[in-house]
Request: fold
Amino acid sequence: MKKHLTVAAHEEHLIKDAKALVQAYPSVPLTVDCVIFGFEENKLKVLVIKSDLEYYQNHYSLLGDIVKDNEELDEAAYRILKERTGMNDVFLDQVRTFSHPNRHPGGRVITVAYCSLLNINHHQLKIHDNDLNWHSMPTLGDMAFDHKEIVDQCYSWLQKRIQEHPLGFNLLPEKFSLRELQNLYEAILAVSLDRRNFRKKFASMDLLIDIDEMEQDVPHRPGKLYKFNFEKYEKSKRKWIGIDF
Amino acid sequence: MKKHLTVAAHEEHLIKDAKALVQAYPSVPLTVDCVIFGFEENKLKVLVIKSDLEYYQNHYSLLGDIVKDNEELDEAAYRILKERTGMNDVFLDQVRTFSHPNRHPGGRVITVAYCSLLNINHHQLKIHDNDLNWHSMPTLGDMAFDHKEIVDQCYSWLQKRIQEHPLGFNLLPEKFSLRELQNLYEAILAVSLDRRNFRKKFASMDLLIDIDEMEQDVPHRPGKLYKFNFEKYEKSKRKWIGIDF
DNA sequence: GCAAAGTTGTGTATTTTTTACACATAAAAA
DNA sequence: TTTTTATGTGTAAAAAATACACAACTTTGC
Reply:
């Protein structure tokens, strides 16, 4: 550090050096892919779109796009979802970055997977370009790129996550019956749960508000309706200490 | 698709298109940073190195480097660890990708964080360039770039992970006492645990092999030594169905 | 050799959580 | 009015988590 330089000039010099260094770095194309799970007709579905790459012309792919200069990954994920589906009130979580050198037939492209879970009825698709549609999870076949693997990893992530956080409530109507809630968990976890124990579990968590209304228009005895107590959940997130493997 | 083209020629054409597309993508410099946790003297430590960027000349940083052309992220992480520390028998897990546009003073650089936990005594540092050293977690101050945030996120990841998987056994000597095991858990989780219940818990998991030896050279009553039953653990990884929030 | 320091090893009672399981009731449809 | 279908509810048993105290063993210092 030359003594006659001002602090600001020195700082500028350091930044210049840093910039030169970064400019010498190799760089790679970076994309974001969104794995949007939705729930409808007691089935878990995932939002897919026909690949616009001719190479994969009959395959479905995830909603993805390139990340722009100086765009944060989170920002890119929300932008892509908005552009492709019109949705803008969805939470997305980053799951994992995929980097296999041959995952894209056009050369090296790295992608960061984001995941969400939402209520299909609250998010009617306004755009149907490229056959954008909700595909049922169990029947999802091959996909373009490594997108099947990405979906599988996001699905595992989701199954784990919904056991730790009550994600599910954004997926149901504001007022829902316990059966609807159970259907949701059964669909996502791909298990069947004991009805009485399931109800007891949720009752003991005390996160449901009994709104004293009944289901309408069901072809059987109607169930009570509940709302989710979001405030209470926010306050009571439990610290988890348990050795459990 | 022109009918007179062979299948191979058509395929080649599609790849050419895909390549042209990818070449038009913007690209970003990509690095990997390794957060290596280690355990020594009943303290959790993390491996840090003086930043070689003059801009951060008095700050510690993580072990990181640029990802090479056509290098998988996992591969890059193992390479970096090997180059900087000489270690080559460490498992690394990808944790998260960090993309804030100003995280690097030289311009946009995206980094993917990898994390591990290892036995410091099994991995004596052979290289000490740039003041590479094990820094105790609780006293870790500011770091270069956003590396403090990366460490914090990896630490949370680790705390959760060690409650789901018995990571800890790679951190102890092959033969260890229950006290050593408990110290490890207490250090990582930053809690204190009931000794009798801790022992009971591990006894009931039946993952420890009593090797019928005692500690040597301890200044108090010696404890029994155990080995971890890796085979049994591999077989019995439990499927986790529980709604727990 | 003896006392002090420090740590090991062990069991039980209590509470909490999980699991398995059956029947009367309500509404709609036939 | 009968059938279909799903709701709502309780208890007993088993398993897991928690709180807690004392005798035994080894080294160290006197």
